[in-house]
Fold this sequence. Notes:
- It is found in: Cytoplasm; Nucleus.
- This is Elongator complex protein 1.
- One of its GO terms (cellular component) is elongator holoenzyme complex.
- Belongs to the ELP1/IKA1 family.
- The chain is α+β, with helices and mostly antiparallel strands.
- It is built from 33 helices and 53 strands.
- The strands form 15 sheets. Strands 4-5-6-7 form a four-stranded antiparallel beta sheet, with no helix packed on it. Strands 8-9-10-11 form a four-stranded antiparallel beta sheet, with no helix packed on it. Strands 12-13-14-15 form a four-stranded antiparallel beta sheet, with no helix packed on it.
- Helix 17 runs antiparallel to helix 18 and helix 19 runs antiparallel to helix 20.
Amino acid sequence: MERESVFLALRSGDIFTVRVGMQDDSEAPELVGTVDSGIMACAWSPDEELLALVTGEARLLLMTQDFDVVDEFPLAQGQQGEEAPVALGWGKRETQYHGKAGKAAALETSDPVQSQIANARMDDGEDDGQTRVSWRGDGAYVAVSFIAQNGAREMRVFSREGRLHSIAEPIEALKHTLSWQPSGRLIAATEKLDHRHDVVFFERNGLRHGEFTLRKQTRHVLDLAWNADSSVLAVTALVDTGGAELEVCVELWADRNYHWYLKQELRASAMPGGSLLRAVWDAEDPMRLHVAGSRAYISVRLHAAPDVAHVASEQSNAAAVVVDGAQLLYTPFRWANVPPPMALHTIDVEMPIAHVAFASFGHGNGFAVLLADRRTVVLYECGAEALQGNCPVESGRVSLGADIVTHQIAWPRRDALVCLGLGTQHEAGDQQVVTAVDLGNLSGSSSSSHVLDGSTRVIRLVAAERSNSPSPLLLLAAADGLVLEATVDEVGAIDVMPLTQLPAGCVEVDAAVIESETEPDTVIVVGRTERNQLFANGNLLSSVCSSFYLRRDFLVLTTTTHFVRFVPVDADLLTVTVSEEEDETLRYDETRRRVERGSAIVLASPLGDSVVFQMPRGNIETVRPRALVLAAVRRALDARKYREALINCRVNRIDMNIIFDHAADSLMADWEEFVAQINDPDLLNLFISGLRNEDVTLSMYAGPKARTVGVARPAGVEQKTTNICRAIRPVLQATGDSRFMPTVLTTFMCETPADIPAALQMLAPLSTDERDSALTYLLFLSHVDTVYKAALGLYDLPLALLVAQRSQRDPREYLAELGGLNALTSEEYRRFKIDAQLGRAELAVEHLCAAYMEACESSREQELWAEFTEYVDAQEMHRNAIRLLSGHRRFGDACVLLGEHQASKREWSQAAASFLLGGAHTLAVDAFVQAKEWRAALAVASEPGVGSAQTVHDTAVRASAVLAEHHLFLDAATVLLDYTERDEDAVALLVRGAHWAEAVRSSLLRQRSDLVETTVRPGLLEAHSVLLEDIREISTTFTAKLERLREVRATPLEVLAATGQPGEADDSLDNIDVMSDTTSMASQFSTFSATITNASSRMTGSTARRLSKKSRRKEERRKVRGKKGSIYEEAYLVDSLAKLIDRIRVHQSAVRDMNWALIKCSWLKAAAELQGLFAGLVEVVLECAVFVFDEQRMQMRLDANGVAEPVPLEVNEQGLASQPKHPKPVLPTFAWKIDAICE
C-alpha cells in the first residue's frame, strides 16, 4: 500500500493496518473496520487500488484504499457471465439422438450452472475448503475459487467493475489452489484424479486450456505462485521423498516448446533450519524466490544456463543435457540434433536433479549430477562405444557430508569433485563453503573444505578448460564481480585466492588462457551480467550480449540486435570492443551473421564448426558459421589434412581458392601429398575448376582481424591459375592412373587462356573408348564449337570430324567443309584456308606465302599472288608480308602495297618511306609533298634519273600550295623562291603570314624593289588597320567587364544568394560574348600573325547546328552563368577577363613585328598610334590584375533545390583546403615596346 502500512485481515472479520517503522510500542495497530460475517479470503489488486474481499456469506466486496465499498454482490450468481460460450449451431441438443428417452429428452431444459455443479465431483478430503482470490497482472479482472452450496468447487472471474465475466468450465476434481498468470493468459489450478495429479489451466473466458501432470511422488498441493514475468510456476506441495513423513517441497516448473519441465525442487530438509513453510516470488525481480521456514529465511536467485560440454577434444560428443525433474535429457549434438522436449537418450534417476556439471578432463563426455537431497552426486561416463552417440552409464555415486547443503558442483579432475554450498556447523553461522571431495572414497568422508569470507557471496562455480594444463581453472564468481580461483592439490587440499575483478556481478562466467612464449600466460575471464553486459576482465566487450560460448579460438556471442558475433580469443580481447555498426569497407565479414530474433547459444562445438541455437519457441537449430568453418579449414591446412579441408569447403560452399592461398608456397612444394590424399578425380576437378587469379585471403576470407588491417591490399594474383595447373599436371600424369585423365584435361582448360589444342593432343595415345570418354568430358568443359575450331587449328581433320559429329551442326555443312579442305593438294594452302577460317591472320599469311613460294614458276603464281595481296590488304598484314618476302623478288611490290595502304590512311610520311623502300620514287615524292616535307620531296625529285627540271618545278609549285593551305607561309614562299621564278607569289605569301622583314629582304635580294611598293606596303597598311580595330575592341570589352566586376563585388554575397537567380537576369545580355566576330576565324590564325592563339573561336551559322546535344546544353549553362545578377556572374567575369589577357599577351609579338615594318616604311605616326594604344591597354591590365585575381570572393552555386550554397572546398598542392579560385594568367610585359617611337 502507498501509505507505508501493513494490511492485516483476520478470519473473524477485523481489518487492521499496521504502520511500518513505528518508533515505539505506543502506537497500536489501527482497526479500520469489521466484516460481521467474517473474511474468507482477500487480495489487493496489483496496482493496490482495489481490495477484493470474500465474506463468510459468500459475497464479494470490492473496496478502495480507504476501505470504502465500491461494490458488493454474491459469488453464486445464476447467469453465465459476459464471456459465456456461444454455440454455432452444430450438434444441437434438439437434433441429437436420445435413445429411449425420445424427443421429450431433447425438449428438457435445465439451469446450466446447476448442471455444472451436479456434474462436479464432491470433495474427497484433499481440498482445504478455503476460498482463494487471485488478480490478473493488470488488475482488470479477479478470479475467485470457492465451495458452492452443493459442496463442489467453482471458479468464477469478475471484472474490476464487479460484473461476472465468466464461470470456469467444470472439471472432475478441481482443488483449492489458484494463481492467475501475471501476463494474463492463463489461470492455474490443480485437479486430483485417481491416477494422477494435474496442474490445469483456464483462459479468462473459463475454458480449459491445457495441463501438465505432477510427479507421482506429489501427494498434496498446497499453493501455486507465478513469478513476475510468468515464466516459472512455483508449486508448493507435500511430496513423498522416501522418509517416514511427507516433506514440504517447492517445485519450480517452466514451459518451453509446449512442454513443462520440472527444473528445481527445493526440499525442506535441504533448507537451513530444516523447514519450509512458504515460498513467495519477488515483485520486482522475476527470478528471485523468497523462502521462509520456521527457523530461517533464504532468498534464492535463479538463472537459466545450458549444461553443455566444454572440453576441446577431437573425441568430444559436444553433448548437452536438459533437466526435467528426475529425468536427464541427453543429446550428443556431434551425432544427433534432437529438439527438446525430445532427446536422443533419457536418463532416469530416483529423485529430481538439482545441478549438472560436465567433466573438464579427458574428452569431456562425462558429467556429474547433484540430486535434490543436496547430499548425493551421481557420476556418468561414456565408454568407447559412447563415441558413436550411445547413452552414458553410471560410473559411481558420491555421498556428501550432512554438514553442508550443496547447491553447485564441478568435476575438474577424474579423482576430485568440487562442491559449493552452505555450511551449517560453523560458529559464524551459515557461510558458503567450497569442498573438494576425493572420488577415490565415494562415501565422501575424505574431503577438504574452505570457508569463504562472509562478505563475498559466490553465485557461480565454473570449471574452465586450461589448454596448456590437464588441470582446469576452477572459478568462483561473486555477486560483486570478484572472481576467485580455487586450486586442488594432489592430496586433495583446496585453496582459494582472488583472480580478477569484473566491473559487475556475472551470472555466466568462463575463462581462457592466452599462452605466450616470452611472457607469463594471461588468464582472461569472460562474464555476462543480467543486463546483457559482456566483460573480458575489466574490458566491456559488448553491452547487448544475450548469450555467449567460449572456445579456444573464438568467443561466440549473440546480441539483442539479432546477430551472432565471433571474436578471436587473444590478447586483444582485453582491449577490443564488439561494434554493432556494420563495416561498409568489408564486403565479406565472417565475424558476424544474422540470427532469428531471441536466439540463444546452446553450445558451439569445441573443435568443430557448428553452433547450436535455441529459438524463443524452444526448437533447436544448428548452423555452421563462416568463421568457424574457415577456422576448421585453416587448422586442417596447417596440419596438411588436405582432403579434410577440401571436403569441408565443398560441404559448406567455401571458395576452394583458400586451400592454395592459405599457404601458397607450402602447397606448391607438396602437390604429391595433395594428390595422394585427395585421390578422387571429382574432388580434384572441383578444386581446379574453381581457381581464380585472386588471393581470397586478402578479399573474401581476410580473417577476423580484417577490420584492424586498414587499407585493403590488392587481391589480384597474376597467372595464379595457370601456374597451379602447370604444377599439378605432371604430378597427375606421373601417377599413371587413367582415372586422372579428366583432371589433366581440366588443368589445360583452366589455364588463362585455355589451352584446348594441348588438351586435344592428349587424346591421341588413348584407346578408342578412353578417347571417347575424354572427348565427352572435354566437351562438357567447353563449348563444342570452340573445341571444333581448336581441332581444326591442329590441322587434324579426322579429329575435327570426331568433334563435329558430337555437335548440333548439320552434317551436310561440316562434311562439305571438311571434304573441301581434305581435297586440297597443297598442305600449306590447306593450312592457309583453315587459319583464314579461324581468323588467325598471321599464321594464314605465313602459310599463304609458303604456298605462293611453292607455286613460283608455275601457272598458279599470278593467281596466288593476287590472292596474297588481296588477303594482306583485307587483314592489314603488310608488315608481315614484308618480313616474309625479305630477299624475294616480290619484296618491292610488298613495300609499295604497304605504302598505298598507309597513303589511304593519310599517313604520308610512312607511305613515302615505304615507297622509297619499294623503289617507287614518283609515289614517294607525292607522299612527301602531302606530308609537308618539301625538302625531302624536292631532294628525291632532283635525283638523277628520277625526274626532269620541269618535274622539279611542278613539284615545288604543288608543295608551296600545300604549305600555304596549312598556313605555313614562310616555307611556301621559300619553296617558290628556291625552285621557281614566281617572286610575286612568294612575296604575297610572306605578306599573308605577316613576315614583313622577310618579305622586304626577299624583294631586295631578287632586285625586285617594286614588290615592296606594290605588295608589301599595301598589305602592311591593311594589317595595321585590322590590328588597331582588334586592340580597340579588346580594350572596350575589358573596360566594360572590369567595371561590371567592381559593381558585383560591391554587392554582398547574401544579396546575390537571395535575389540573384539565373532566371531573373536581364535578357538583353544574352548576345554578349567575350570574342568578337571580326577576328574570330576557324583556323585560329589572325591575318597579321602566324602564331596560334589560345582564344576560343565563336561558332556561328551552320557550325552551331553541328553541335551535339550535350554541347548545346553546356553552352546554355555557360550563357546562364554569365547573366547579370546571377550568383555565377563574378566567376564568369573573372574567367572572361583572363581570356582577354591571354589575347593581349599573344598580340605582343604581332605589335612588335608590325612596328618594325612601319618604321622601315617611315610610317612613324601609324607606329606611334599602334604602340600607344597597345601600351595603354597593357598598363590597364597590369594595374587591375591584383583586384581581378587576388581579391576573388567565395564562389557560389545552386544546389538541386535551387538554393544558393558555397562551392565545396578543394585541396591544393600544399594539402590545404580552400575555396576554388580562378588561377592568375601570365600577364603581358613591355618587352615588345620600341623605345625610339614617341607616343
